[in-house]
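Write out the bound-state structure for acetyl coenzyme *A.
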Amino acid sequence: EMSDEERAFQDRIDEDIKIEPRDWMPEGYRKTLIRQIGQHAHSEIVGQLPEGNWITRAPTLERKMILLAKVQDEAGHGLYLYAAAETLGISRDDMTEQLLSGKMKYSSIFNYPTLTWADMGAVGWLVDGAAIMNQVPLQRTSYGPYSRAMIRICKEESFHQRQGYDIMMKMAQGSEAQKRMAQDALNRFWYPSLMMFGPSDAESVHSAQSMAWKIKMNTNDELRQKFVDQTVPQAEFLGLTVPDENLKWNEERGHYDYSQPDWDEFFNVLKGNGPCNAERLGARQKAWNEGQWVRDGLLAHARKNAARKVA
Ligand code: ACO
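---
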């Protein structure tokens, strides 16, 4: 049974009135948002690593500048999102510590390696493509600060997707070796990109409540299907083959039929056993440790300033 407060809260959600930090909210709503926004913020920050890997090896100065700008954007996205989560009463330090201890997750996709330059194309095209598919509807999410962060992030995210597709075009229209690299990148990133949308609706524990609260606007399978429908013609335009023998336009459904990713692999990556989990968390732990003196210095400075004001 809902209390009067909960009923009034749900009425506001149903009327599409945004919830703001000072408004009353059920504890479950607050916890779910901290989990989702925090996980999203961590994904932006950890997501810098697979691409940062290629900045020094980008094939031209122009490509280097573009990639550098994109990776910087991701740092900015992480910061907007941490700030949005902080309005719910958790500190960024707490979230970071929970990431490093394995209590909080980040997107499974960033536990796969980026082996060739074509992977920068595939990451932009597929990974950022999947991210936008998920984030465009989140611009209408019920929590005000999250919604506003999403509006800014989506603008930059579509530039990221286009730069990835542009790399794929160049590679797919290049030499035979370049075309092979592009196909290989698509082969390796296709199923991990499908996994980004989360488990099937039948296995998604949070979807029903999150949709009732309009924290999520669509189910995982809905967005995955939209992504497949949008991406298959883009692969055809590149002259590349999606690595799925069952992929077929279904006239009746008005959608592509496609194969599910290997869900055992997905849950195994979530448990920390993906190809790069240890490396990614190791890199974040190292950055955290090496930044300790900066945090200490800033704190000492803030304390000194505060003491001076009192005196
Ligand atoms: N990677 C890691 N964990 C995942 C993933 C994934 N791709 N998909 C689902 N999970 C986790 C969920 O966090 C949840 O675990 P938890 O209870 O320990 O937190 C569990 O699997 C069950 O999944 P769901 O019940 O479906 O979880 P939820 O309703 O949160 O849906 C989703 C998952 C779709 C990812 C949702 O959280 C979301 O839309 N998040 C915002 C977008 C986002 O985080 N994007 C990050 C990648 S894009 C980028 O950074 C460029």
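---
The mean pLDDT is 97.
DSSP finds 13 helices and two strands in the chain.
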